[in-house]
């Protein structure tokens, strides 16, 4: 057991082996959720002009005691700049408008009384220089670096792209992923009734859902029989058309676990096989002749999902160019079992306590085949090898489903 | 100011006004990320048979001292059950296979030595009853409730659906959402160059990204000029074809903020207008004649996004039937400004400290128009009205972008 790579070492070997996927240019409306692969600089000062922050009037404070003004014009949002020539006058303004030339103060409409063409300030209201003016360039200056490659494009990033005139954006291309289920015991979800000895295919659906949730939407599902020649032939086809292969099952040490053999025959370089962890020990990972990323996950559902969230998804995110952030860390709310030689992954449900801690309650699966309790969990915590159970209060990284 | 509803009251009024969106049946392969709207019961015992957990041999422990066995057959995964008649024999088994009738112990292949048709147990290996057998029904029993309406279908839920033969699943229909930008100052993202007084449309792209991220993928963008008749006409069309309208801009108290007037004319019942909060005070919310959900958000980008994550997204999730969970709570890593009368929303960046706390560093926006710093943040914390700044260590709810 001791010669198996640790979880950390396995992660490092995987990370060091990965390619960087290609980029593509997409219209802004198709960019949400994608991984940015270009720099974005400020197109112009932001705001691009001294900007009115309230509906009201713009005035000149030359004569600080003046409280009555004659309306000399209107400056609406979107209009080119008006000019106020005389400090006895004012210009009506709306939020978002340019501050008229000659004005240095905005008085909100609530602080004014209008009578015909005259506007009076409400008693007691004291106008101040630059009041309710959002100055040109105060948010950012033309040429400022606003976004760097490696960020996921969420709402704030989309606002920045649109505001800076980026109508097409360079993002990571979404790789084609094939999920391959192995195992002659697998029945289709539609099959009725189940024959003796059969269980339904479910891992591939779960893996596809995890992938789609992270933006890997180009996913095809297929299955191969427990047969070396058929498996090799199908994998050859998929290696020719996909950037990522994810197999489930067929990687233990049994007679029929010929996935490693098939991959070897196809020139997929093994980077690792088996990791000092539970569940998920049999995981296999390699790189194909054209840089294809190949994960062969254990066939047990919990094992497969643990390997997916701990290795597969972070690996594909790295290959898309996403800047990685440290794993979320949570506090065990109850003791959890560990192993002296193996890193253990334990399903947990997370809630946020009054101290602002993320408290993780273990929901151990009785076996690595049992996933019926997983819907009540948020992910798994990673517990280092230990001779003792991890006590309540242990801080551990969380990998969400 | 004091008569404005609080954030909590606004949330309650919104929640009490919402319809429940319709359901639809979708194939399992289209169900990832959707909100479940049916119960799912266990189709059969899980596992459906006593299941072999390791490749190896299955034996009968009748004669506990026996260490040599004659291979009497093979039981592969997916095969109907074999029978072992004689405790001097064994049956080769693979992971996932049925335990052959008459066997009560599985010995892993690593603990055996094979010579022709004979298998010997490795010296020192002590077989035990029921070893490496995953008993029928130990994960769940036929008819057990596995999933309830209101869960989001992630990887674990997809596994449960597939494993239980649910080939079509009843989920919340995804509502048609229209995002309507108002403001004559808005230029299209492609327009070159910007004219004086113009800024580019960006709120609608940001709102669309936030919606898509939560599964609201049927989003159309449109804009209306600052004109009551044109706005009313366009909103009438959208109310006829969409379940959700999200407007940005036009809801303050200025002359040109006629969105509330247009909505009133179209029979959209106002539930609230203005909330005791900063930013986002001018928000308007109402329900249309056919139960359409109408949010009119402020035009300032930060205000619009704050209102989206605090009200719009939770409201639409409720209307989809998603069971709500308490907001994530974080700990302020530095003081943050508050207001005596208004709830304040402050952008923060979250990192997980060594104590398992989510530490939130405030990244205040200089103005509610400034979103150039938001890409460096994870969301906003909600700070209750107070005469003093919120000190470091304050625990506050987090709303992620």
TrEMBL record, chains A, B:
InterPro entries: MoaB/Mog-like_dom_sf, MoaB/Mog_dom, MoCF_biosynth_CS, MoeA-like, MoeA_C_domain_IV, MoeA_C_domain_IV_sf, MoeA_linker/N, MoeA_linker/N_sf. It catalyses: adenylyl-molybdopterin + molybdate = Mo-molybdopterin + AMP + H(+). Pfam families: MoCF_biosynth (PF00994), MoeA_C (PF03454), MoeA_N (PF03453). SUPFAM superfamilies: MoeA C-terminal domain-like, MoeA N-terminal region -like, Molybdenum cofactor biosynthesis proteins. Keywords: Magnesium, Metal-binding, Molybdenum, Molybdenum cofactor biosynthesis, Transferase. This is Molybdopterin molybdenumtransferase. Belongs to the MoeA family. PANTHER family: GEPHYRIN, MOLYBDOPTERIN BIOSYNTHESIS PROTEIN. Catalyzes the insertion of molybdate into adenylated molybdopterin with the concomitant release of AMP. Pathway: Cofactor biosynthesis; molybdopterin biosynthesis. Its cofactor is Mg(2+). Its EC number is 2.10.1.1. Residues 178-318 form the MoaB/Mog domain. It comes from Dyella ginsengisoli. It is an enzyme of class 2 (transferase).
